[in-house]
Amino acid sequence: MHKIKITKWICVLIFAVFMTTACAIVPMSGRQQLSLVPQSSLMATSLQQYDQFLKENKVSQNKAQTAQVKRVGSRIQHAVEQYFRQNNNSQQLAGYAWEFNLVESKDVNAWCMPGGKVVVYSGILPITKDDNGLAVVIGHEIAHAVANHGAERVSQGLLAQMGGMALSTAIKNQPQATQQLWMGAFGLGAQYGMILPYSRVHENEADHLGLMFMAMAGYDPNAAVDFWQRMSAKKGGQAPPEFLSTHPSDATRIRNIQSLLPEARKYYKPGK
Ligand SMILES: [Zn+2]
Fold first, then answer.
1. How confident is the model at residue 194 (pLDDT cuts 50, 70, 90)?
2. Ligand 1 centre from 118 Cα, in Å?
3. What is the pTM of this model?
């Protein structure tokens, strides 16, 4: 009896130590997040999935549109790097090798993997319209990545489904479940029949950080309100979860963004 009690307390202690070392702080928002997955294994896995994705999908041959994606993307990248540098936080971007691609697809979608691999689907371009509109989307996706939302979702999934066992053990014992977590976590899921939308917390945070990043890069933050209004009008139930999401609802999202505009204007330097 006594022995069982001691074991139980050791478990509680191990769990407490494990949990406290398994937390990270989201840049800019300051929110504490669960982080059970080391950055190194995250990058390696996402790179594999990114290569696989590019093999299975058609990279756009449209020169003007491709140039637009690369132009807007690299401006936001530089703004993000500068922000992290100014906040002595550059180590969070260690191992990032940014890349911006446009793929041919009817889907209204875009994503950024941990490590800075960004893919925009051509189906979203009629809604983004111009550089400012595209900056809303790329800013939002880069925000999901640099705020480590993918890692947080994998961590939450591991904790829920596998009781928080180490990632390497999880991959060995349950390769399919782990694979699905990855797919879902990075927005590639819809394509493979796996739907795992970002939570409301993650969406709000990506809207917030994304708006600041686009403003820092010299894009007019007012464009975010226009973009989400166009997105709201366009939706026909076909969009993948990242842009279909009923959480937050369009009206709530637009109101939130409007309330963030004064903060974004402080960062905005037009014609940069
Ligand atoms: Zn999102």
1. very low
2. 13
3. 0.82
